[in-house]
Write a structure and sequence with these properties.
By secondary structure, the chain is an alpha/beta fold. Helix content is 25%, strand content 25%. The relative contact order is 0.09. Residues 363-466 are annotated as: Lon-protease-like.
Length: 466
């Protein structure tokens, strides 16, 4: 007898369900994101055969209620991925039983990074792993491994399968400690009456793998596709059910990939790792500041170096500003790459009100070198000094580093981890630093002169002296 199915509609962005189709979601206000899905009319959840504790009528649970004060607080065991940058983004390594979602644009190197990681874990740590390839054949994976020179002495297990139930049964037999699903968008469950990649299939497949990982203590890494706007494809619940969500971004004109964590239950959020793209795979960059500071030999106006805090470490990043006369009476060109557009408008108003610089008839362009996205306010002072440098066509010293938050009253506010930022700048040979007075360290590094400022006018005055 054919099982009856029930039709419903669900929003791709917020996962809100509707009985009928409509153009706009009433919850997230998004247009054309509601798609048609199906489920069994009885509403009974799928019960995989591998999941211990289910029978035909009742659910037998072995878990008991515990007091919060009695829960063991021992440190979570982890094992390394073989890449220090990957471990940093994950918070120190892979936690057994955790579920990790790795997203990125096509050709970013997701499969290459995971194939290298599994080979290193299998060879160096003697940990049993399983690579589930749903998009590529075994020959294609072997060709990539040969190109990356990973084939010799590699005991990596590969499974070409897209059925979730069969994957879980195979994992129960093989008993790996780490399993990679490449990718979650091509996986399907037998009892879900929709095509692979649909909202229902992705949601149920991810939930099934998450439950399997928690019950069996197997770490699972799922590869996720992205849409044309750069967000992860599938329902938003996909990011909620995983323990760690990371993105691998690579610019079309760059040879470096940036791995960033958007969510991490076992480490810092917005942690950043840098990899170099080579013909032999991805290689980690242990000193990202040296990559982002590839500056020209000649001094140019409108360029300054700032120290931003990414996750658990400081990074030296160059910021560029271009101020030009507008061709119209009311300039509207305020183009920003790597920073917040509204933040630039605020800083231009502060620069006019408290710095005495009129730029109402100027176009302003701002760019953060290296494709870094700066979200913290410690870049305010560096951005303003770069704008002043471009406006007056006067280059800033090459060995000057700047950081600090600028308030609406023109005051310079302190930022977190000031000592670590100064140490990072001194390590790269910077001799001058302009920073908030509250961040001036008690012990100044050798061969470095630090200027602590309270107001914007103080910083502008110091520029005339150095």
């Amino acid at each position: 007898m054919v099982k009856a199915v029930k039709r419903f509609f669900i929003c791709n962005k917020c996962s809100l369900e509707y009985p009928h189709w409509q153009g706009q979601c009433t919850n997230c206000q998004a247009w054309n994101t509601i798609t048609e899905c199906y489920r069994e009319a009885t509403g009974v959840a799928v019960r995989p055969v591998w999941f211990a504790g289910y029978d035909n009528q009742t659910i037998v649970s072995t878990k008991k209620v515990q007091k919060l004060r009695n829960i063991c607080l021992k440190k979570l065991p982890r094992f390394s991925t073989g890449f220090k940058e990957f471990d940093r983004v994950l918070g120190g390594g892979i936690v057994p039983g955790s579920v990790i979602l790795l997203g990125g644009s096509p050709g970013a190197g997701k499969s290459t990074l995971l194939l290298q990681t599994l080979c290193q874990i299998t060879t160096q740590l003697q940990i049993k792993t399983l690579y589930v390839s749903g998009e590529e054949s075994l020959q294609q994976v072997a060709i990539r491994a040969h190109r990356l020179k990973l084939l010799p002495n590699t005991e990596l297990n590969i499974l070409p399968e897209t059925n979730i139930e069969q994957i879980c049964l195979t994992a129960l037999e093989e008993k790996p400690q780490l399993m990679v699903i490449d990718s979650i968008q091509v996986m399907y469950m037998t009892d879900v009456p929709s095509s692979p990649g649909s909202i229902s299939q992705v949601r149920e497949a991810a939930a099934c793998l998450t439950r399997f990982a928690k019950n069996e203590g197997v770490a699972v890494i799922m590869v996720g596709h992205v849409t044309k706007d750069g967000s992860l494809a599938g329902p938003k619940v996909l990011e909620h059910c995983v323990d760690c969500s990371i993105m691998l971004n690579v610019d079309s004109d760059s040879h470096f990939g940036i791995l960033r964590s958007n969510k991490n239950r076992f480490g810092a959020v917005n942690e950043l790792g840098v990899f170099a793209m080579t013909e032999h795979g991805l290689h980690e960059v242990n000193n990202p500041s040296a990559i982002f500071l590839r500056r020209r030999e000649e001094m140019t106006a409108g360029s300054s170096v700032m120290v931003v805090w990414e996750g658990t470490r400081p990074l030296l990043v160059e910021i560029q500003a271009l101020v030009d006369d507008s061709i119209i009476a009311q300039p509207r060109r305020r183009i920003v790459v790597g920073l917040e557009q509204n933040r630039l408008e605020i800083l231009l108003a502060v620069l006019h009100r408290h710095g005495g610089l009129q730029m109402a008839n100027q176009d302003v362009f701002v760019n953060v070198v290296g494709g870094v996205k700066v979200s913290e306010t410690s870049a305010d002072l560096a951005l303003m000094l770069a704008i002043v440098s471009s406006l007056h066509n006067r280059p800033l010293p090459r060995d000057l580093v700047v950081f600090g938050e600028v308030g609406l009253a023109g005051e310079i506010r302190p930022v977190q981890s000031g000592q670590e930022r100064i140490t990072e700048a001194a390590k790269h040979g910077f001799r001058y630093a302009i920073l908030p007075e509250a961040n001036v360290p008690k012990k100044v590094p050798e061969n470095m002169q630090i200027f602590g400022v309270k107001k914007l006018t103080d910083a502008l005055t110091i520029l005339e002296q150095i």
